[in-house]
Amino acid sequence: MKKLKWLLILLILMIGIGVAVYHMQKNRAEKKAYEVLSTLVPRNKQIKLKITTPGNGLRLFPESYDFAVTTKEDYNHWRSVVVKRKHFLSPGTGDNQMKELINDPNNCEIIYKTTQTVKRGKPDDDIMMIYGDDGFINSHYPSNSPYTNQRHFKTWNQALKHMYDNFSCLPSNEELVSKWDFPSKTVKELAEYRKSLNK
Questions:
Q1: Buried/exposed code over 25-59 (b: 16+ C-beta within 10 A; e: otherwise)
Q2: Which residues are CB-contacts of 112 (< 8 A; sequence separation ≥ 6)?
Q3: Reported confidence tier of residue 183, pLDDT bands at 50, 70, 90
Q4: Same domain, yes or no, for 94 and 177?
Q5: Rounded mean pLDDT of 59-71?
Q6: Per UniProt, which keywords does this protein have (predicted)?
Q7: What is the mean pLDDT of residues 41-63?
Q8: Strand 134-137 to strand 128-131: parallel, antiparallel, or no bridges (unpaired)?
Q9: How would you list the strands of the sheet with 47-48, edge to edge?
Q10: Which 3 state secondary structure label does DSSP give 26?
C-alpha cells in the first residue's frame, strides 16, 4: 500500500513538473513571438490579439501557437472597409453580427502574425501580414508554396500596391527584396511612384 502511495505521489510530481516546464516554454515562445513581431510593428503600436493554435486545435499541450497583433491604424482601416462593403474581408465571417464584431480588435482581419514552436530554442522569424484571406509572408518557403506573395495578384506590382495600401507597418525597401522576395525592380518603381505623389 505504501509503495502504491509513493508511486502515486511520484506520478503527480512528474506531471506537475511536466506542466510547469511546458508553461515556461510557452512563455518563452510568447516572448520570442513579440520580439519577432516588433521587427515590423513597433511595440508601442501593438494591440495584442488572442493567442490561438494553428488550425484552432484543441490539444491540451499544443506544439505551437499563433501570436498576432494589429495596430490602431490597421484596426480603424479594417472597420471602415468592412462598414463600407457591408461584409467582412473573409467570406462568411459573421456578417449578420457585424455591429458587435467590429467593436472587438480580436476580430480584426488586418493583422501581423507569427507562429512559434513551444520547444524550439531559436525563434522562427517568419511574419505573415494578413488581410482577410490574403496575405504576405517573409519566409523561406519555396516559390511554388501556397504562401507565395504574388499568389492572389496578376503582377508583383499589384501585390506590393495592395500591401502599401492596406497595412500601416511596412518592411523597408531593402527587406521587401531580401526577406519578402519582391523583385527589386518592382520595389524601386513603386517607391519612386509613391514618392512623386507626395511632392
A1: bbebbbebbbebbeebbeeeebbebeebeeeeeee
A2: 37, 40, 41, 68, 69, 70, 127, 128, 129, 130, 167, 169
A3: confident
A4: no
A5: 84
A6: Membrane, Transmembrane, Transmembrane helix
A7: 80
A8: antiparallel
A9: 47-48, 64-70, 110-117, 128-131, 134-137
A10: helix
Cα–Cα dist 81/131, whole Å:
11
In the numeric block, the cell 453580427 is attached to 97
User: Residue 8: how many CA atoms within 13 Å on its side-chain side?
Assistant: 5
Residues in the chain: 199
Query: Does 27 share its domain with 78?
Result: yes
First to last CA, the chain: 85
Q: Which of 132, 160, 183 is the last residue of a domain?
A: 132
Same domain, 21 and 105: yes
Q: 153 is in which domain, residue-wise?
A: 145-199
Counting the structural domains of the chain, the total is: 2
* Chain position carrying cell 519555396: 142
Q: What are phi and psi of 181, to 5 degrees?
A: 65, 20
Confidence of residue 145 (pLDDT cuts 50, 70, 90): very low
Report whether pLDDT(59) > 80. Answer: no
